[in-house]
Design a protein that fits this description.
By secondary structure, the protein is α+β, with helices and mostly antiparallel strands. It has helices at 51-58, 74-77, 80-87, 95-103, 109-115, 181-192, 210-233, 238-246, 251-255, 262-269, and strands spanning 5-10, 16-22, 33-38, 41-43, 66-68, 92-93, 124-125, 129-131, 137-142, 151-155, 160-162, 175-176, 198-201, 205-207, 260-261. The structure holds zinc ion (ZN).
């Protein structure tokens, strides 16, 4: 079933964005990926099993001169090596992603089935300040939590924000085993201090209510941490807290062998220092 969809978005100052949604499965935002470009700048490379469609999208516009990666995950970095070769460029990646991208990293079976396997790629370290073709400023903001290397891109002039996997959804039910909730919440808090008009999420799409959505997500997480910590103080065990607040374990826990689970979220919620969010 075709899930491909094209995106066009223009700022009053003339900044033009386009994007394409790709994905193997029609199964919601977790199996779709949107590659965005502004002129010759490409943000994230898309999953490797979608290369045919990503390549067709890239060839519709001017040649790509810069590829900026938000983090190492395979849906974001999968085609970086092919894009580097096709356009003779060196992708820019967060310092913490570079070794993983160059040497390869372990990908759970379900994720490999969904996105394919990325090829290894040599990158240059993403600087904090970047520029679009017209010289307008872009700031790379380190926002760990979802992944230690996650970096978002903020365009202060346009008030546009490329959220990588920081936003994704207003509610969380699961966490990956390697996610850090405290860091994720601090990253949301840091980003909410920015003057943001539009959020570009590689899974949700273009969201003009994205800043309100991120605020809602942080509020939801603060309340979840409060509830988890209260129940733990009353002597409830982690599994019972999970069942009470998030519902019983679902197929996802089994299929991913606990890599994606409600228990991960509860465990992390018990570690959050809520004094940081008063
Ligand atoms: Zn990710």
């Amino acid at each position: 079933m075709p899930i491909r969809q094209h995106y066009h978005y223009q700022h009053a100052d003339g900044t033009n964005l386009s994007g394409v949604k790709v994905g193997r499965l029609k199964g919601g935002i977790n199996t779709n990926f949107i590659v965005y470009r502004i002129g010759s700048v490409l943000i994230d490379a898309g999953p490797s099993n979608q290369w045919r469609h990503v390549k067709a999208f890239l060839q519709q516009g001017e040649p790509i001169e810069q590829l900026w990666l938000t983090h190492h995950h395979e849906d974001h970095s999968g085609n970086a090596s092919r894009i580097a070769r096709l356009y003779k460029l060196r992708p820019l990646a967060p310092a913490l992603a570079q070794q993983k991208l160059a040497r390869g990293f372990r990908i759970p079976a379900l994720q490999q089935m969904t996105w394919g396997k990325p090829r290894r790629v040599v990158t240059e370290t993403l600087p904090e300040r970047l520029q679009l073709d017209d010289g307008s400023e872009v700031i790379a903001i380190h926002t760990p939590g979802h992944a230690a290397d996650l970096t978002c891109f903020y365009l202060p002039q346009q008030r546009w924000f490329f959220s990588g996997d920081l936003y994704l959804a207003r509610r969380l039910k699961y966490m990956r085993a390697d996610e850090n909730l405290m860091q994720l919440m601090l990253s949301l808090k840091q980003v909410l201090a920015l003057d943001i008009d539009v959020v570009f999420c590689p899974h949700r799409g273009i969201d003009e209510q994205g800043k309100a959505g991120m605020l809602d997500k942080l509020d939801f997480l603060i309340q979840l941490c409060r509830d988890c910590q209260r129940l733990a103080a009353e002597g409830e065990h982690t599994a019972a807290i999970g069942e009470q607040l998030l519902g019983p374990p679902e197929m996802m826990d089994k299929i991913t062998r606990g890599n994606f689970s409600k228990l991960n979220l509860v465990r992390e919620a018990l570690l959050v220092d809520l004094a940081q969010f008063n």
